[in-house]
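Hi U.,

Before I forget, here's the chain from the pilot set. I'm dumping it here mostly so it's searchable later in email.
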Amino acid sequence: MKATTISFFGNFGTQNFGNEYTLQAILHNVRKYLPDAKVNCICTDPRDVSIRHGMPAFLMSSRYARARPARGPDHSIIRWLRRLLVRAPLELLEWFKAFRTLKGTTMLVMTGTGMLGDFGIGPFDLHYEILKWSLLAKLRGSRVLFVSVGAGPISHPLSRRIVKWAVSLADYRSYRDSFSKEYLASIGFDTHGDFVYPDLAFSWAPATRGPSNRKGGSLVVGLGLMDYYGKGSTKDYSEEVYQRYLERAADFAGWLLERHYTVRLLIGDFSYDTRIKRDLLNRLKERGVKNQDGQIVDEPVSSAEELLAQLAGTDVVIATRFHNLLLALMLNKPVIALSYHEKIASLMSGVGMAEYCQSIDRLEPKRLVEQFLELERNIETVKPIIERKVEEYRSALDQQYARIFNRSGGPR
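Structure:
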């Protein structure tokens, strides 16, 4: 029998800790269900993926290679000629290289990483690559699986068309929440017969489940921060949105510190969350808020394992990034979500904590304080509910892995 070769596809290697943990989770389960399978990864930074995950990795596209030096003024005519005479032939070469990379692949597995929404993604970015690699996988006779992916919203009409075409090529589709399945149906894609399974990160129980690093009797509050500039594509981002978010985060952090809570600062993406911790600390300093007796814990983080260890050192987590929240729940930490995307509201609703979620664009500091105090009172009631739900999710994902990684090497 031909050996099973699985190629994982996604935005891996960019030091988004949620994405890296997702890849770790599915790798762990492949080795459980298909111990003899060969694995590789098609991603945005192969070197990083190979080092972190110990498997062969290939560049998704040269567009994700390290930025080249500027070439001087880029006039519209020159840009058009470059696309016609340089970019088009190079793209044909990209297709050839991708086709060669997929030789021997049994399954091309699309996993998470925000691939079917347009938060920071344009039609000719990741959406185009998903379609390209799906088409080539089908030409190679490979199965294409979209496994527990999130979908929507997608504002650009061309992105919608590309996404629908790509998912139509799949032999198996599952979504991490009902919102994603319903969203695709709402834009005209037939989701009948598709599945809903939880986010893949729930399928790997971390070993880190220790107590918080509490000093005295006060809670340790994990404050998960994000360089948030707004929703949609990058052209819609604004510094004004970022500054408003920063002010409200500083308001809440100051309130916690004045009441002698310990505040542990968290991020979820080493590449993109580059400003927020520094700006928050400076804003608190400007306001005269002092870091007495190590009340503010600010430690570097460069891996999903380090993030898990930091989350384990908290009692409660208030966060913006999806996987800061999800991994905290994995560790049975009560959470409050500052939601910038429907996936976060869906996550909170799924674990029975919808009342502890606020839209980040309509964030009310007073309401956040009220939610925090309510959650503090109910910690011992909430934690068993979270633990049961996480176990339910893990069991459901075991069923999905059994379905897609059966002995024939493809989904039933």
